[in-house]
Write a structure and sequence with these properties.
Strand content of chain A: over 45%
Strand content of chain B: over 45%
Number of helices of chain B: 0
Distance between the termini of chain A: 36 Å
Order of helices and strands of chain A: EEEEEEEEEEE
Helix content of chain B: under 10%
Largest sheet of chain A: 7 strands, mixed
Mean pLDDT of chain A: 91
Order of helices and strands of chain B: EEEEEEEEEEE
Largest sheet of chain B: 6 strands, mixed
Number of strands of chain A: 11
Structural class of chain B: mainly beta
Oligomer: heterodimer
Number of helices of chain A: 0
Low-confidence stretches of chain B: none
Low-confidence stretches of chain A: none
Chain lengths: 115, 110
């Protein structure tokens, strides 16, 4: 059963703590992405990776960090430097080639709440 | 700067009616235009997509109309059903750089 999994589904964090969100895919996709979703603002790109051991900042990377040590995994760390981290976080993957195969497939999301 | 503008923000349609959501983009380099459907608490799921070499694509009750010269595209949902109630996002992409509209919350009343 191929797809993208994210864990945990819900995450609560105290101010000042770092937390790591997990994203795993078994679609053999090269590219992986992290988005943040806030009400009424659509999806905003945090980080993306087109190949193992390489990643680039998206539009709102400040306060976040990522790693891409394996093709299947792209964890996101929300650091204490992120001023407003409460949001719904979505991980996606794609084959990594341009054109019709640009389709991004999304995981079920992690809802992070800062207490 | 918002590269993809989506309207309306919310839409209420009666069962059996037609739902129409519009998007406009700025970057002429975009070459792939998907629509995603998202239910509360879930990740977006690809609904239908189009490339700029065609003006229309239909899959079941869902149709994308694409106007390259106007840099606009729209989603039409025919015979709308209560189960279609969800948030819909348009997107535009080039070389894996995908930009999303702000979303339209569709409610289909029985």
């Amino acid at each position: 059963d191929g797809g993208i999994t994210q864990s945990p589904k819900y995450l609560f964090r105290k101010e000042g703590q770092n937390v790591t969100l997990s994203c795993e895919q078994n679609l053999n996709h090269d590219a992986m992405y992290w988005y943040r979703q806030d009400p009424g603002q659509g999806l905003r790109l945090i980080y993306y990776s087109q190949i193992v051991n390489d990643f680039q900042k998206g539009d709102i990377a400040e306060g976040y960090s990522v790693s891409r040590e394996k093709k299947e995994s792209f964890p996101l760390t929300v650091t204490s430097a992120q001023k407003n981290p409460t949001a719904f976080y979505l991980c996606a993957s794609s084959t990594g080639t341009s054109g019709a195969t640009d389709t991004q497939y999304f995981g079920p999301g992690t809802r992070l709440t800062v207490l | 700067q918002q590269q993809v503008k989506q309207s309306p923000q919310s839409l209420i349609v009666q069962k059996g009616g037609i739902s129409i959501i519009n998007c406009a983009y700025e970057n002429t380099a975009f070459d792939y235009f998907p629509w995603y459907q998202q239910f509360p608490g879930k990740g977006p799921a690809l609904l239908i997509a189009i490339r700029p070499d065609v003006s229309e694509k239909k899959e079941g009750r869902f149709t994308i109309s694409f106007n390259k010269s106007a840099k606009q595209f729209s989603l039409h949902i025919m015979d709308s059903q209560p189960g279609d109630s969800a948030t819909y996002f348009c997107a535009a992409s080039n070389n894996n750089d995908m930009r999303f509209g702000a979303g339209t919350r569709l409610t289909v009343k029985p």
